[in-house]
Amino acid sequence: MKHYLARRWQSAKAAAEAGMTTAEYAVGTLAACTFAIVLLAVVKSGAIKSGLSGVILDALGIR
Q1: DSSP 3-state assignment of 53?
Q2: Are the CB atoms for 52 and 43 separated by under 8 Å?
Q3: Which of 15, 43, 61, 63 gives 57 a disulfide partner, CB atoms 3.0 to 4.6 angstroms apart?
Q4: Model confidence pTM above 0.85
Q5: What span, in angstroms and rounded, lies between the C-alpha atoms of 63 and 58?
Q6: Buried b (16+ CB within 10 A) or exposed e, 29-49
Q7: pLDDT 10s per residue in the chain (63 long)?
Q8: ∠29-33-14 over CA atoms, to 5°?
C-alpha cells in the first residue's frame, strides 16, 4: 500500500507541474515577441536607421 501511495503521489505531482511548463513557455514567447516589436520600432526610427546603414556601409567599404 505504501508503494502504491508513493507512486500515486509522484504521478499527481508530475501532472500538476505539466501545465506550468506550458504556461512558462507562453509567457516567455509573449515577452520575446514584445521585445522584438519594440526593437523593430527602435531600429526603424530615422536616426538609428541612418546610423546603422552608415556602420554597415563603412564595414563593407562602400562609403
Answers
A1: helix
A2: yes
A3: 63
A4: no
A5: 6
A6: eeeeeeeeeeeeeeeeeeeee
A7: 777 878 887 877 776 666 667 888 899 999 999 999 999 998 888 888 889 889 999 999 986
A8: 5
